[in-house]
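Much of what follows relies on a compact textual record of a protein's fold. A record is reproduced here so that you can trace the correspondence yourselves:

. . .
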Amino acid sequence: MSIAPTGTISLAFADNASNGIEPPFSWTYSRKKRMADGTLKEYAVEDYAWRLYKHLGGDVEKLPDYFVTALEISAKAHKDMVAAVAPYIDTSISKTVNVPADYPYEELQGLYMSAWKAGLKGLATYRPNSVMGSVLSVESKKQAEEKKQPQNFVSGDANRRLSIKTLPAPVLASTGRG
């Protein structure tokens, strides 16, 4: 049994209706997608449950306690969720532990050590940084209002698309093309 990556799958096929074993990244956020020409396109994303709650007249400025995002949960709580389901999974678990850009390196080390002590096979963390930026980002209301349509922008050098001109013969042979 495995737990597949649900963030992208949910966005692509389920109107952002399920995040699997983790809470939504945020109720509203922007997502960057790399296009074939190397540019990035930015999309505004809204969580399905948040949108439905709003549609039914709920006050999205004062959400009930059970509305919790991945950004509101500690890294340890994310790791503990993986540890809770790991005994029942024999292949892999796709669950990201989101940590802020200023998350101390020592705490990140401790997180991986505690995951190892809990018997986890691995742990995926995501920490935005100034070189690579972030795929998902939360904006202020003012920033969101200023954006009326998705924007295209050329990515920086650190975020460029990798291009391989030739492949070694063993790689080609493994694909049946060599």
Notes: Residues 6-156 form one domain.
